[in-house]
Design a protein that fits this description.
With 127 residues, the chain is α+β, with helices and mostly antiparallel strands. The chain has a single domain, classed as Nuclear Transport Factor 2, Chain: A, CATH 3.10.450.50. The chain has helices at 3-23, 26-32, 49-57; strands spanning 33-40, 46-48, 61-76, 79-92, 95-110, 113-123. It has a 6-stranded mixed β-sheet with strand order 2-1-6-5-4-3. A hairpin with a 5-residue loop joins strand 1 and strand 2 (46-48). Helix 1 runs antiparallel to helix 2 (26-32).
């Protein structure tokens, strides 16, 4: 695949992942995350794939919407690195929150195709 086509493919997968988070499409999320996923939250806590998906199933995080901007995808070998800003409307442990975060997401191409292997976000103030 040409680099621009790969970037477009990753954009589609990322949009589909976010929609799956809103829809609680756990089957899709199971498949799109690598087994060695590291998911680092904006509060500094980190989860494995298993821990993150268990938390979603338990209703710790209920995602309602995402809005991203300033996204940039860089290709590094068989990895795609996405950086950008994201606004999340989410309920965390029963408390509605609007989170503004700067993030980095790493996708890797393996035997089963493109999967996300890492996410890290840091809150920032829009003010």
């Amino acid at each position: 695949m040409l680099e621009q086509h790969v970037k477009q493919h990753i954009e589609v997968l990322e949009a589909r992942r976010r929609q799956a988070m809103i829809d609680w499409d756990m089957d899709f999320l199971e498949g799109i995350y690598t087994d060695d996923l590291t998911y680092s939250h904006s509060d500094g806590k980190s989860d494995s794939k298993r821990g993150y998906l268990q938390g979603m199933r338990a209703g710790i995080w209920i995602y309602r919407s995402f809005e991203s901007q300033q996204e940039h995808i860089r290709m590094v070998g068989t990895c795609a690195v996405i950086t950008g800003l994201i606004d999340m409307d989410v309920i965390i442990r029963g408390e509605p929150m609007l989170l503004n975060s700067r993030y980095i997401s790493v996708w890797r191409k393996g035997d089963v195709g493109w999967q996300m292997m890492a996410w890290q976000s840091t809150r920032y103030s829009k003010v």
